[in-house]
Amino acid sequence: MIQTDICIIGAGPVGLFAVFEAGLLKMRCHLIDALPKIGGQLTEIYPRKPIYDIPGYPTILAEDLIKNLMEQIEPFKPSFTLGERVEKFVKNEDGSFNLTTSAGTEVSCKVVVIAGGLGCFEPRKPEIPQLEQYEGKGVTYMVINPETYRNKRVVLAGGGDSALDWTVFLADVAAELTLVHRSESFRGAPDSVEKVMELAKEKKIRLMLKSNINAIEGNGKLTGVSITDQHKSVQTIPTDYFIPLFGLSPKLGPLENWGLNLDKSAITVDTFDYSTSVPGVYAIGDINSYPGKLKLILCGFHEAALMAQSAYKVVYPNQKYSLKYTTVNGIQSF
Amino acid sequence: MDIINIYVEDFSGNRQHLEIPTEINLNLMEVLKASEYPVQGTCGGMALCATCHVEVLSGSEQLNPPQDQELDMLDTLPELTDNSRLACQIPIQENIDGIIVKVLTE
To answer: 0.90 cut: is pTM over it?
Structure first.
């Protein structure tokens, strides 16, 4: 079990900066994110977009802001659990918390900070009957470990960059690879499109354009997918894995059932310290709601600073704290 | 003040008439969000998240054609229709008067 002072749910910019503010107050942090990489929306949705309203940066690319934040929090040695979603939330009698992720990772902490943005990014699922029954039994929406597919038969669906990238990558790994795309052309990065077309020409992959997958087959485990082409003719391709790659969309997820006060899909907080209705649990950044709330990264940073002051009293109930400027004391790393 | 009319159908098929002044300088995603439709607009209108996916049931030819960024994003949607658009890329202007859109997000 991972033991920490603060468990931060969400490794976007606000979750990351919370590590800094907590670190100044000698609190250690562990971060959990449902996505396999840090950065949240900034990495997942708009890594190459410039942001213009971060104080001190006339303009900064989203991915660079994340890189800088990682550098800024490095002295405080945060630990990460990525690609896992917090499923279970238990408040113990002594006020501490136990969290359990989708992969069974357990975290014990004194404070929980929810910096979950718009919720978990969950894969968009195509409407195929029985698809969900086969999740984990051959159907998956994310390639986490490519080695899983070594010498296996794999069908990918989608036409975006991730479908193209994984096609190129898995072409050498899988025993047999099929890419199914609804349209006749790809709009992804020209490089990747060219590589995929080449692989198809060399018959290293099976490329099915203007086609859709509308049924899956199996006997408890996936055995094949049915593909309908533009002429409405249907063929079944035997496969071990089917990976639809249609991007991600945000959902609030399991934290809806943790007993926190909610307003639509946001967690209501007290603006004194961004605490939620459950003592010891804070919500900062886009996921919280209060009168006058602005969903800006810079507001999330401010919320993180105030949260840390209040969390300090939970983590160190018998100590007094007085604010010290980093310019005076520097950073005392762990 | 110029007012335009649009008709919005929700996921279960109920249709509502909205009157919108053009001078408010909003896009359709913002209007749908403000009208309490289940439209998140996660990316804030950059055509990067597709949480404002709509189907234009009538009047799609009146709209400005989609730009590359929007087409790229639409390509990632499993439930794409022939008249799919991202509402955030549809500014509230005279040219959209009378269109009928169906909200495809839940």
So the answer is: no
